[in-house]
Amino acid sequence: MKTSLVALSMALAAPSAAAFSITLHSKLATTSLHAATLDAPIREAPGAGWEPDWEDRPGLAPEEFMQSDMTKPDLSGMWECPLTRWSSDNVDIVEAQKEAAKMPHCPLEMRASAADNAMGAEYFAKNKQQIKADLLKYGAIWFRGFDLMKSVKGHREMYEALELEPCLDPLHSSGLRKFASERDALYEEVNKPSLRGHYIGLHCESTTKRTAAYAAFVCFQKATEGGGRFLVADGAAILAELDTKLLQKLYDRKIRISVSNLDLPPSLPGFVKEGVKGLVDAAVAPKFDMDLEMMFEADGKAGRLQAVEIAESPINRHPVTGLPVWFNNAHNHARKLRDRRPCGVPEVGMTEVFYADTMEPLSLEDCMEIKRASEKHITALSMEPGDVLLVDNYRALHGRDVFQGDRFHAVTWFTWDDNEEWRGDERRMVEKNGLNKAINKMMDWLPKDFESQQS
């Protein structure tokens, strides 16, 4: 699922977005930013197994890198994000870990030579088949030092040379990302100043319902005052690394993830709470194209209404290769991990991960093992202008470290290219646009130092 799903949370919390016909106490719309516990844990920046050096390669000015090639067709009617391909039954955990451990390090680094740069888009057209084979083998490819992708126009030339088919973000209507260039199927990444102090943990761009097949993350401008490394880790390596007993437990019990909190006064009569629950369930949740259940007090907080995804396996077999991988967003969404690292999300947007069979939050011990195994295999990329990380979204997980100053990264999502039956026949659902734009305006209104107000 999407990073923190802040926008979904804000929509669930805002009466205007939910089209509420009743007026509630102000506590219904927001939760105190000073939330949480009396004994707050120490916040520490997570580590990474690999941190390549920065090279300070120059980029283009915004007025240059944002230019689109107006001779190319408008791609705004792109494919809908395809439905998630699940193959998670009858996994032998021990054998799965052995198989996953055989995979090479992710990502593969492909550094441009002078000759490569001279070829421009032809480099990618000529090497298309090998690049796609390497993507399946390694899970992600870091194209480093390529001049072509320093602009929106060049980024599109790159993915078109690879014959990749753009699709909508799995949660297009959530508003967490807006388009950087809609006609080029390019979303802006989470560069919002209000979230620059928020660490985005490892996740696939996926819900239980929809998952992009591939992604191409591009850097046009690295953070002007430091930080902002892009994080990537192999889901196979994490699977192989995790404690076998924990992996078996999570596989047997499955997990559920809550994506937002709406705190109602506990003293409200039951029929009022149920009325609010029904309104949110009917008016807001369907707009996010997710399988959500509205639940009261799942995390034990009195009066809290949470939107919770259906149960899912933490392990999935890759749709093409059959390789078993760690395929879930627990590293990003577990509350016990979020509370221990830089976090710029208000209480309404805080997420949680539950054992599906009992709806108990994951224990601290289990969360810390997920943290250890995940962060051991993170490569914290020093992406600079023109760099692209091409990701197999069923294999590799991604995230982003905190940053200072201004930063401009963008991403294009892709549907299946060689598997038309997996792609489906849905083109863009235009009715999603209104909520997307409205929530983005709310996010842009947040002050740049929003995260510091929550400490």
UniProtKB/TrEMBL annotation:
UniProt signal peptide: 1-19
Entry keywords, A to Z: Dioxygenase, Oxidoreductase, Signal
An example Gene Ontology molecular-function term: dioxygenase activity
Pfam families assigned to the protein according to its UniProt record, in alphabetical order: TauD
Signal keyword on record: yes
Domain TauD/TfdA-like: 125-408
UniProt superkingdom: Eukaryota
Claim: Signal is one of the keywords in the record: yes
Protein name listed in UniProt: Taurine catabolism dioxygenase TauD/TfdA family protein
